[in-house]
Amino acid sequence: MKIIFSKSPFLSLLFALAVAVFWAVPYVCTLSFQEQYQLFLFTTDYFVERMSVPGGMADYIAEFVTQFNYAYVVGAVLLGTVFFMMRELTVAIFKRVGADEVWQSITFVPAFVLWAYMGNENVMLSFGVSLVAALTFMLFYLKMGGEGLPTVIFTAIGLPAFYWLFGASVWCMVLFAVLFSVGKRRGVWIAGAMAVYTFIIIYVCSLWLPYPKYQLFCGVNYFRYPVEIPIMQFVVMAAFAVIPAIGMWLPTRVVRPKIVMPALLFVIVLIGAVGVRVSFDRLKYDQIEYDYLVRTNQWNKIIRKAEAHQPTTPLSVSCVNLALAMNGQLGDRMFEFFQNGAEGLFPTFTRDMTSPLQPARCSTDWE
């Protein structure tokens, strides 16, 4: 039993498989939703445009991955791979700071927190990519020892490069370095200097980049809407810094580890699964699923979905009416479902990212 629960790659692979199945089966509509709002180009101009913004490499990699969402299984597997890398890097850091393997289940926490945060459909994959990069940076920082001239040189060059390539997730690295230096009681002045240095780097960038300071300090393209940065983003960033470092303070000797290891894993997975489930709003994702079904012309599935749960919004009603019309059933079955007047055929435009495409598709198909 202990051997199974201490095999990090095996558990990470199971976790990645669960993530892939989650996106490929019940929430495949989300993959379609993310893919339809972008157009990735293999051109030099497109690459240069992305790299001209802090975090541009994270954006470029994320958009490259997102284009595969059109082939939903491939997109789901790639997302699972991202989460696999997150967990394995967290485990590697956890071991480096001296944590006992009995506590390794805690390393699932950051990935679960990010997964729950992605219940907000406006979270961009570039945020997840930047966190993988931050974990990689932390691991290299630990290999440098966290003190001495090699660490100074590494951070002096690495911090500005990391910020420009992957954006504000550099703060994860800074917070981790502070916690590590305090826990190990070495290199504290380097960690403090890193925080000041990072602040100066971002402030200097704000003097000539056309972005508000809060975006440059918190992430330019981590969230779809530039005027809003959810508090949950900072919670996720803190989790990716604190959880790997917390291993320094956990006891190295545990009574009955064969009981503690599976029990801890069960509790974390249970809480994580519940957290992910409640973070995905049913009404919102119903609309996204209707949009996906209309996009893929699955008219019978739309009708079955409406039969199981009556549509209540103008967008869902319009999709159901369109499906009935495409199947030649509108005249006979229209009033078996909830109707809301003319909006049930042509919904009014709403300024958000979930509704505009459905009226456009419905209008095109009605014509």
Uncertain stretches: 1-6
For the CA atoms, what is the radius of gyration?
Answer: 23 Å
Structural class: mainly alpha
Helix fraction by DSSP (H/I, runs of at least 4): 55-70%
Largest sheet: none
Give the total of domains.
2
Helix-strand sequence? HHHHHHHHHHHHHHHHHHH
Based on CA inertia axes, which overall geometry fits? globular
N→C terminal distance: 62 Å
- For the residues shown, what is the average pLDDT? 87
Number of helices: 19
- Portion of residues in beta strands equals under 5%
Give me the count of strands.
Answer: 0
Give a topology summary.
Elements lengths: L1 H5 L1 H17 L3 H8 L8 H8 L4 H11 L5 H25 L12 H9 L7 H19 L4 H19 L3 H15 L3 H19 L6 H6 L12 H16 L10 H23 L2 H14 L3 H10 L5 H13 L3 H4 L23 H10 L1
Structural summary, described in words:
With 367 residues, the protein is an all-alpha fold. It is built from 19 helices and no strands. It has helices at residues 2-6, 8-24, 28-35, 44-51, 56-66, 72-96, 109-117, 125-143, 148-166, 170-184, 188-206, 213-218, 231-246, 257-279, 282-295, 299-308, 314-326, 330-333, 357-366. Helix 4 crosses helix 5 (56-66), helix 6 (72-96) crosses helix 13 and helix 9 (148-166) runs parallel beside helix 11. The radius of gyration is 23 Å and the shape is globular. The termini are far apart.
